[in-house]
Structures are given as C-alpha cells and as structure tokens.
Amino acid sequence: MKIAVCVKHAVDETELKIDSSGKPVLAGAASRMSAFDKNAVEEGLRLKAAHQGEVVIFTVGPAESRKTMKEALAMGADRGVLVAADTAAIDTMRTAGMLSAAIKRSGPFDIVLCSEGSSDTYSGQVPPMLGEMMGVAFVSYARKIEVSGQTARVERSLEDSVESVEAQLPVTVSVVSEINEPRYPTLIQIMQAGKKPIEELSGEQLSPAGAYREASTASMSAQQSARKRIMIEGSPDEAAAKLVEALMKEGVLSK
Amino acid sequence: MIYSPEHRRLMEMFEPARHQEYSEVLSSLGEFMEKEILPISPKLDTGAAQINGPRKALFEQGMSQIPFPADYGGLGLPFPVYATAVELLGSADASIALSVEIHNAVAEGVFRYGSESQKEARLEGIITGKKLASFALTEPSSGSDSGTMATTAERRAGEFVINGSKMFITNAGEADVYFVFAKTNKGPSAFLVDAPNRGLGFGEELEKLGMRGSKTREVLFSDCHVPEENLVGEEGKGADYAKEMLHGARIVVAALNVGISQLAYGKALAYAKQRRAFGKSISEFQLIREKIADMKSGINAGRLLYLYAAKLKELGHDYSSEASQAKVFATEMSLRVCDEAIQVHGGYGYTSDDLHRHWRDARLLTIGEGTSEVLRMLIARREMARSS
To answer: Among residues A6, A33, A82, A8, which one has the least CA distance to residue A184?
Structure first.
C-alpha cells in the first residue's frame, strides 16, 4: 500500500506571544510539526505495518520545514517530498494545489492522509481541497480507518454521533486526534532520519502564482473574551442560590 | 519546554559542528520527558507511582545509549550532550535521573575497564537498558575513604567469594548487574555480580528525605560466589577505577542538580509574577527580584561549569578538578535555589509536596557521590599540583 501523509511546519501555538496591540508575534516564533499531523503520520505508519508498502511525507513550506519532515521520517516514514514555498504568502487553495501536484507526481498513492486542521491557523480547508484536486473520494474527521482489499472503512467522529462510511481506494482522509496516540521516535531513529531521502520541489513550478484566485489575510489578532467579572458573596447556600439566579439571567440555565 | 532556547544556544557553542543534530535529539528527548515523566514525578515522590515503568520507557527512547559507541549499541554522542540530557531529566524527575545516572556510571566502568567478554555479555544490555545496573562502593563504615572498606573477595577454586555489605546503594534489589568493590589480597578490586545470586541479599528499602522515587537499600554479600572472570580490570586497581568512574559521574550529578534548580526556579518565577501583596505583584518587590536574579545566575553558572567539565572529558583532558568544581557548585547552588523557591512561595512552599520535594531531592547530592568537603580537598589538591 502506498500512503502519502501531508504535514505542516507550523508556529508552535504553545509558545506564541501576543504583542500589545493583540496581534500574534510571528517573526522569530518557535515552530514545529503541527500537533495533529503527528496523528496522521502515526496512522500512515499503522496502515503500513498492517498492509506493508511505503509511507511518503509531503510538506509545503520554507527550508525550515525540513525539521518537521525529519521528525516524521524519524517516526518511521520512508521518504519525504518538500515543496519549497513561502507559506505566509500563499493561501490554502494554493497550498492544496502544490500538495496535489507533488503527490500526483510521486504517486499513485492508495491513501492520502492529513490531519483535520493545522494547530496554528486551523482553517481545516486544505484536506477537502486536496481531496477534490486529487479527483478521489474525501472522508473527513476519521477516528478509525480499516482497509480491506480496495475498500477503506472509516469511522467519522462528528459532533454528536459517529458515522461509518466506505470509500474505494484511492481516497483522501483527514484524521482527528483521537484516532491514535502518536509514537515518540527513539533517539537512534532521530539520528538515522537524516539519512532518509528528501526530495525538494519548487512550489512555484508545481502551482504557479495565478493558478487560483487567492484569498489574503486582512488581519490576525488574538481572540478577546470580555469578562463580566460578577462576584458572588455570602454563605455557600446563599452563594449557590445567587449563582443559579445569575446563570438563569445569562440564559445558561432555564427553568 | 524542558529543552529551551538557552540549551540550544549552549549546544551551538559547545558542539558547533553538529549542534543542530544534537539539538534535535535533545529536543525530542525533552518533549518525551515533559509529557511522559514530568506529570508522574509528584507521584513517584509520594509512592503513588513506581519508577520501573517510566525508567524503562526512557531507556527505550535511548537515554542510556547517548555517550557510548555504536559497536556496543550506543549513539556515540559527545559527553556534553549526555550531561545535558541528564539535566533535562533532572527537571522532569530527579529520582529517575539519579537511578539512570548511576546505571550509566556502571556502563562507563564496564566500557572502560571491562574485558571483551564482560562487555559482550553485559554492555549492550546495560546501554540499551535491558539490564539495570547498580554501583556498590559505600559501606556502613566507609564512604569516600574507600581504602578502609571491609567487604572482602577471597579467591577459591576458580571463583571469588565475596563477603560484607554495601550501604545506601541506588537501584539495589532491582538491578541485574552490580559493580561491586571488595578487597582481595592485592587491595580494593572491582567485580561484576549478576543477579540473582544465592549469596546476594538486600536490606529493607531505606526511607529517605528526598529522591523517594529511586530505591535505596543495603546490599548484603554472604559467601557470594562469582566466577574469576567477573573480576573487572586488574586485581587491586578497584580504588583507581572507582575514582575515575566517580569523576565522570560528578559532572552528571552537577547537571542533574542544575535540572532540579531550573524546575524550582521556573515555579518560583511564575508564582512571583502571579502572587499579589500590598496591591502589586510580589515580583515587583526588590527583595524578590534579588532572589530571581541570584537563582538565575546560579543556574547559568552551574550549567556552564558542568558543560565545561564535560567538554574537557570529551576532549581527553584532565577534568577531575573541574568535575568536582561543577558538582560542589551546582549541588550547593541547587540547595539555595530550591530553598529560595520555597521562600518565594511562602506558606504554600512549606506545605506543598510538589515544591519542597525539589529541596528534598537536591539535599542528597552535597553528600552522595563525594561530599562537598571531600571534593573541596580534591579540588585544592589538584589545583596545587597543577600550579607546582
């Protein structure tokens, strides 16, 4: 089975600082493999363990993305394809265009895996766009994938239900974090990852500017949550009654 | 983030040729420790969790392989990388760091002084953590003065028969291999004792002030027969081997204490910023700022000292004085930092297991593996010899 896994070298949101105007400080921010992408890599490795074959990692980004690529290779993937592009200057459609062109060029693949969204911008747009551009079935929010013959049986984790669907291979699937527990590469795997092949392609050549109408980011700022700062005082009994009253007033509780 | 940008910069300075690769290794190891070891650390202190599982997971990651050559299952990385890894582990859990540090000191002893057949039989197992190792030197009535040890090894019909006891032994009762020092006719000698052995017994687990996650027991030898080929190196050279093994271990103990200090300091800094008194954050008071400045300066100085000693060792220079300087400074600094961290937290510091355990853990290491007093004598002796 040939498995493609798409990963993103993303800003480490846990280390992100916000400036005084409420904007995230992206220049010089720490970066790493987008957290959920590790689940996609892990699932690719599990499918390979069950069906044999090859796991190829694809990423679109600057040279620094090699760090993320190496991390995925250290986890156990066989080789990587790095599509060089300035991710800050391209939109999700163009990213998907570059990925699909690179995957088609290195394919064919039986299954293309992504995470549901990146841990920095979390737009969740690339996976469905990629599925569409690949011209294959797309299944989102997978919490379980089983492949038998040419059929993928996927459990989709929806807000209040789980849906089971079947799709014929080849298929593009986005996974949720509950699908698995990503492995930690051992130190020796990290050291050996540097010896695995990484092919570098030009994003501009795969998907030239103007291929799509691109969206641009008008502004980005940290979410502000206004607090009402309601203090409730009194004995526990009195406070509980006042709390219930306040919650009903806010519409959180109803009679 | 246990492996911080500060560590990364230092790695660039100490190991410029391959710092990126080493930082990848340390960063991944740090992430593993942060997610898998740090959260259970308080439970190891109270006994609600046991050391075996996390230590095994850490061995599987490759923690003990770091400084040893690939021929024996190691990664062949420089000593400063290994020492930094122990610092990270000291921040994640001091007890596991102690257990692993001693285990690795034995690996180094087998690597340096063991015969090829001893290495073949045990070294890869120790380096990969499949066999746990323990170092048995101290006795109920002798510590740093190892020449006065009472444990004996008598040669009898192709075997050595060991009798006596060893005190305060980390990993005792759990280890598969014991690096034991005992006196023969030719003086203190080193032996490998594989468990189980009918003549090998253990005292009750000792109650300790800190480092409670690690197991410490007395090791008892009662007509403990070991084959002649278990003698390590030359008969009568045991005291020299112990000294050399402890020099390397002292660098690592210094790193461990820097790790403990870093964690305690991080908690104190966060608390100082958040805690308010007299209408403002206590971090705005000059006396609290003095503590923060002194804690941070001490940590950085300790880190530089252990990295310097580790680099000297890597380059093959005499590092005995620097290793002792690093240990004396870092262990004493660590006590001050952990004490100040309690002070910054006030009553919460005194009553919180999760905070005062850092001071309790740090307290061991101005005693263990060479007391500050003995090491100061060693430093002075070495420096006087160098200057003459």
So the answer is: A33
Which is it for the CA torsion B10, B16, B20, B21, positive or negative? negative
Identify the domain containing residue A183 by its residue range: 2-206
At A209, the amino acid letter reads A
Q: Give one word for A149, left, alpha or beta, with left for phi > 0 and alpha for psi -120 to 50.
A: left
Q: Which pTM value belongs to this model?
A: 0.89
Torsions phi, psi of A189, nearest 5? Answer: -65, -35
Distance CA(B292)–CA(B280), nearest Å, equals: 17
Chain B residues whose beta carbon lies within 8 Å of the beta carbon of residue A30: 1, 5
Q: Is B80 helix (H, G, I), strand (E, B) or coil?
A: helix
Instruction: Domain B5-127: give its CATH architecture.
Output: Orthogonal Bundle (1.10)
Amino acid B285 reads: F
- pLDDT digits 0-9 by tens, B201-219: 999 999 999 999 999 999 9
Tell me the residue type at A225.
Answer: S
CATH superfamily of B239-387: Butyryl-CoA Dehydrogenase, subunit A, domain 3 (1.20.140.10)
* Residues A124, A240 within the same domain: no
Confidence of residue A32 (pLDDT cuts 50, 70, 90): confident
Tell me the nearest-neighbour CA distance from B25 into chain A, angstroms.
6
Which among A67, A184, A187 has CB closest to B65? A187
